[in-house]
Amino acid sequence: AQRVTQPEKLLSVFKGAPVELKCNYSYSGSPELFWYVQYSRQRLQLLLRHISRESIKGFTADLNKGETSFHLKKPFAQEEDSAMYYCALEFSSGSARQLTFGSGTQLTVLP
Amino acid sequence: ETGVTQTPRHLVMGMTNKKSLKCEQHLGHNAMYWYKQSAKKPLELMFVYSLEERVENNSVPSRFSPECPNSSHLFLHLHTLQPEDSALYLCASSQGQGNEQYFGPGTRLTVT
């Protein structure tokens, strides 16, 4: 069965430090992976998807099929990056495409 | 109003009540979703509608009954809920499945 694991519930870093949010997945098919973010008092929104291979707000994520990982990285964290981050895997179930989410990592960037 | 809206934002109901959650999307999307977000569990997909037809029901108890009368509206009808059904219920929409999902602000449901 497909599963997404985010091992860290909480992560704190200082402003300007590098940050890496871990995500591992299990899926027998070809994975499509996403990072969604929820800032305080805002709704959940897409941050980036692996298929687009772009950097958003300085964040990048590389799909590593060998390690079944899709870690989110940023070289220099900013205070405004503090938010809840969810890794998500898209898979096919019957005629539907579904997202399954990890449990999320609360990132706090300290001044 | 733009994006995805949900009403009510907060709902307290007894176990014998019947209530409905409403979701409306103003994005011209053709797929809509209900998710449940509990305090100690990951976001769980409940239902998927594509072109107003239900394409997925993730083993959700029958006390939750979705309805999609058109591509812009999605309802979740609730009856005889249990206290463990207390959660944040999120609606989302997308243009086709497999594309970015846009989420509503959620309805915070408390079952007493």
Concise summary:
Chain A is mainly β. Chain A has strands at about 5, 10-15, 20, 25, 30-40, 45-50, 60, 70-75, 85-95, 95-100, 105-110.
Features:
heterodimer, A: 111 residues, mainly beta, six-stranded mixed β-sheet, three-stranded antiparallel β-sheet, 11 strands, 49% strand, globular, B: 112 residues, seven-stranded mixed β-sheet
What does this structure look like?
The complex is a heterodimer of chains A (111) and B (112). Chain A has no helices and eleven strands. Chain A starts with a strand and ends with a strand. In chain A, strands 2, 5, 6, 9, 10 and 11 form a six-stranded mixed sheet that branches. Chain A has a three-stranded antiparallel sheet with strand order 3-8-7, with no helix packed on it. The model of chain A has no long low-confidence stretch (mean pLDDT 92). Chain A has strands at residues 3-5, 10-14, 19-21, 24-26, 32-38, 45-49, 60-61, 72-74, 83-93, 96-101, 105-110. In chain A, strand 5 (32-38) and strand 6 form a beta hairpin. By secondary structure, chain A is mainly β. Helices cover 0% and strands 49% of the residues of chain A. The mean pLDDT of chain B is 91. In chain B, a hairpin with a 6-residue loop joins strand 4 and strand 5 (44-50). Chain B is globular, with a radius of gyration of 13 Å. The chains are: A mainly beta (111), B mainly beta (112). Chains A and B meet through strand 6, strand 9 and strand 10 of A and strand 5 and strand 10 of B.
